[in-house]
Amino acid sequence: MESDPQPASLEPNFYYPQEKLLFDYCKVNPGVGWNVIRPAWIIGAVNNAQMNALHPWAVYAAVQSAKGEPLHFAGDIAEWQVPLFHSTARLTGFLTEWAVLEDKCKDQAFNSNDTSPFTMDRFLEELARWYGAKGVVPPTDDEAKYHTVVWKKGKDTPLGYGPPQVLRIQPALTLSEWARQPENANVWKELMVQSGGKLTHNPFDDIEAHFTFGDAVTLRMTLSMNKARRLGWTGFVDTTESIFEMYQDMETLGMLPKLKVNDPRPYV
Question: Which domains does the chain have, with CATH numbers?
Answer without folding.
Answer: 15-252 (3.40.50.720)
